[in-house]
Amino acid sequence: MQIRDGVRVIGPEDAPSYWQPVPANGFVRCILSGKELGTGFSMGTQTVAPGCMVREHTHDRHEEVIHLTAGHGFARIDGEDIPIAPGATVFLPRNRKHGFVNGGTEPMTFVWFLAPGGLEDFFAAIGRPREAGQPAPEPFPRPADVAEIERRTVFGWADQTPKR
């Protein structure tokens, strides 16, 4: 990472990264932290393994933008499945139920922006540290206290149904 006069240039593997538990089974990169930068947003990427998903949830204090960069799947918005492909962008105002499903055979990657920030705190709390070039671990469960972690970070509601 290079920092000069507040400008940051962050390389592909410079950001904190975490393996994610089931049902996403991929990894996140927490590229910009609102706390670290003193800004009103956080930004990163998430890669969801084939056949896996980001559980349905809401953000009661945050807006979110998702921009798909690789793979195919669908956004589940208020129970409706909307196909998404690279280049698709989804804006989610507060309290909208949403999730993302990778129905394809390749990893699905998207950029996420959350305002105000804080999503990076959730990912660090539920994930396992990831280093560049590491092979993916075997699927692992969410922490037993995931509902409490969600409440204290950025979630209003989240589906607690056990998934693979």
TrEMBL record:
Entries under SUPFAM superfamilies matching the protein: RmlC-like cupins
Domain Cupin type-2: 45-113
InterPro entries: Cupin_2, QDO-like, RmlC-like_jellyroll, RmlC_Cupin_sf
Ranges annotated as spanning the membrane: none
PANTHER family to which the protein is assigned, alphabetical: PUTATIVE (AFU_ORTHOLOGUE AFUA_8G07350)-RELATED
Record-given protein name: Cupin domain-containing protein
Native organism: Falsiroseomonas bella
Lineage: Bacteria, Pseudomonadati, Pseudomonadota, Alphaproteobacteria, Acetobacterales
